[in-house]
Automatic annotation (TrEMBL):
Protein name: cystathionine gamma-lyase
UniProt keyword DNA-binding present: yes
Domain of life: Bacteria
Source species of the chain: SAR324 cluster bacterium
InterPro entries membership: Cys_Synth/Cystath_Beta-Synth, LysR_HTH_N, TrpB-like_PALP, TrpB-like_PALP_sf, WH-like_DNA-bd_sf, WH_DNA-bd_sf
Amino acid sequence: MLPSLTGFYTFACAAKYLSFTKAAQELNVTQGAISQQIRHLEDDLGLKLFHRKTRKLTLTKEGKRLAEVVQYSMRSLISTIEEVKTGGSLKREIDPNFSVHEQDLHRGWVEEAIKVIDAEYYRCSDTNLLKLNLPTFPGIHLYFKDESTYPTGSFKHRLARSLFSNALCNGWIQQGTTIVEASFGSTAIAEAYFAQLLGLPFIAVLPSSISQRKLEKIKFYGGKYHLVDDSRPIRIVAQELAEKHQGHFMDQYLYAERAVGWRTDQNLAASIYEQMQKELYPLPKWIVVGVGTGGTSSLIGRYNRFRQMPTKLCAVDPENSVYFDYYQTGNRNLISHSRSRVEGIGAPRVEPSFIPGVIDRMMRIPDAATFASLHYLEKVLGHKCGGSTGSNFYGTLQLIREMRDNQETGSIVTLIPDSGDNYLDTYYNPEWLQANDYPVEQYYQQIETFFTTGRWIDLEK
Ligand SMILES: *Cc1c(COP(=O)(O)O)cnc(C)c1O
C-alpha cells in the first residue's frame, strides 16, 4: 500500500525548499505538522528521507531519488487536473497582473508565428515512397516511406512542427519563451530548427551518450543543450530547466499523441495512403513502424480506424524496451534498467503517447537483426538508413514470410524515419559492432538467404 498522498505532497514541498519552515509557509500549516508528516512518511516507507542537522536540512540518497519522482509526479498531477478542468485549453494559471493589452500584443506575435510555421509547411514537399523489388516473392510488394529527406533529417520534423503549432495555439509559447525539450537527438534537432525560425531560445536535454553529429546539428540551428548522465531521467531534468527559465517544456513523450492531428489529411498516414493510390495493391495489408514516443503508431492506428482502412498496424520494439512486454501483459509499471541501443525507438518505461489499443500486432526485434538489416538494406535499397529502419525491415520480413506461407498477395509499407548519416560511427562501423559483440553476421546470412531464395534459417539462441 502506498502512504498517503498528503505525505508525498508535503515531502515534495520540503524537498523543494530543503526547509520545513518554508514548506510550512507554503502549505499554510505549522512546522510541527510538516515534521510529523515527513516522519510518518519515513515510517511508512521504511526509509530515511532527510538528514536533519541543526541549521541545515539535506536529502539522503534515497530521499533525493524519491524527491525527483515525487516532484515530477505532483507537477504532472496538478497540471493534468488543471487541463482536465479547463478542457485542455489552459496550461498555466492566469497571472492577474497580465493585462488585456499585453494579451493582445502576444496574440499578434502568436499570429505571426503561426504564419511562419504554415509557410514552412508550404515550402516543404512531401517525402518519397520508395518501392523495393522482391523478385523471390511475386505478389508481395514492399514500400518504404522515406522520411529522411526532411530538412532536419528525420520524421521528427513533422512532430516538431505539430508540437510548436499545438503549443502556440494553446497559448503556451509567446515572444521570447525559452523552449526546452527532452530528446535522444532527432526531435531536438527538429525543434531547434523551428525555434530558430521563430526566434526563440531553445535548450535540449540529452543523454550524454548522444552522438557528436547530432550535437553539431542542434548547435547549427542555434540550440543550446544540457547533457545528463544515466542517473537521472531526461524528462525530469528538462522540466526543472524549463521552470528555471520560466520557459515551456515541449514534452514530446506526453504530447506527441495529442499534438499530431489524426483527423486531418495533413499527416504521415494520409500521405502514405495518398501515394499508394496508383499501386497494384493500394491498400496495404500491413504498415510497420517502430515505437519511440508512440506518436507515430498512435497516429497510424487511429487514422486506420477513422478512415475505416482494412490495413493492420504492426509495431516493432528493440531490446531493453518495455513496450513489447507492456503490449503483452498490460503492466504499465514496467521499467527497463538499460537503454535501447536503437536510437529513436524503445523506452525504459511506458510513455504516455503509446496507445496499445490501436496496434494490431507487436514484435520484438533482436538488436543484431536490426543492424544486419541495415547493412542488407544498404545493398538492396542503395540507402544508408537509421537504426530503426533496420528494425522495421526485419519485422517486415516476418510478415512477408507469413504472407508467402499463407499464399496471400498484397502490399506492405514501412518507414525510413531517418538516414544512416548520424550512425556512421556506430551501426555502420564494423569495429563498434564487434566491440559490442553483436552476432550480425548470422542475421545477415539469414536475411540474405531469405531474400534471395525464400528459405528462412532458424537461428537458435
Ligand atoms: C522518434 C523516432 C522513431 C519512433 O517514432 P515515435 O513516433 O516517437 O514512436 C523511430 N525512428 C526514429 C529515427 C525516431 O527518431
